[in-house]
Amino acid sequence: MDQLLHHLRHLGFTEMESKIMVELARQGSASGYEVAKRLGVSRSNVYATLQRLEQRGFLRCGAGEPAKYSVLKPEEMTRMISGQMRDSLNYVQSSMPQHEPEKPAFYNIEGDKKVFETLKRQLAEAKHEIVIDVWREEIESLHEDLQQAEDRGVRLLWSCEEGEGMLEQPLPWPGMPAYADGEGRKFSLVVDRCWCMLGMRGQGSVTQAVVTEHPVMTGLLLNHFAQDLVLFELEQDMGEALEARYGRRYERLSARYWSKPTDGNGST
């Protein structure tokens, strides 16, 4: 009984309306006086509620004196409620004011604790894929979170010498130097291709990171990651030929683009 009254109230009926409908369903039909006597409430409240329910179409009033009321069959009542709720939902969907969606924001985080707390929360919410480019020091702090993500079916992709998805031996891909004038180690992560973090940590610097869902930034990080893995695959297939032409780890080739510029006197 209590459960039935609870669900009727959940559908928008008042407590008095719910009790009257249940009582009429139990009795088949009854006058206002009989309902009031059965429920132990005032006749004025019962009569007002009966008239309201009849106007809304949930009760039928028979001819005669005194007038007797009966409630709709359960299937009729639920069909009527379902139709009314569907109409209301459709109206709300089509008529609710809308505003322009907010543009993805960029926000900064400082401090080791805040950066890792933010990162761990996002890793726990990952559903499909995590793309990660970090160093051994960061991997050790995130190992458990990443393992949990992989255990629940999230795809993990790494920028590391052992290929993708190797939690056991996370090694950095040899690209730009890990450190640059004491700035620290650069790291980046992309979660489900819609959230990313790009930051720097270590070497005596304050841990800092930029977090955003902007598609341009996530696209740039994903493209950079893909290019690194393509180069890695090429090195595996053509290692000796590439090393003979460009030097180990493409040092001569990368020096054209990553070496610091010099002034006219040859100094940096």
UniProtKB/TrEMBL annotation:
Keyword hit for Coiled coil: yes
Cited CDD domains: PLDc_like_TrmB_middle (cd09124)
Source organism, top-level taxon: Bacteria
SUPFAM superfamilies named in the record: Winged helix' DNA-binding domain
Residue span, Transcription regulator TrmB N-terminal domain: 8-75
Stretches assigned to coiled coil: 109-152
Domain (Transcription regulator TrmB C-terminal): residue spans on this chain: 106-199
Keywords attached to this entry: Coiled coil
Keyword Metal-binding: no
Family matches, as Pfam families: Regulator_TrmB, TrmB
Protein's recorded name: Transcriptional regulator
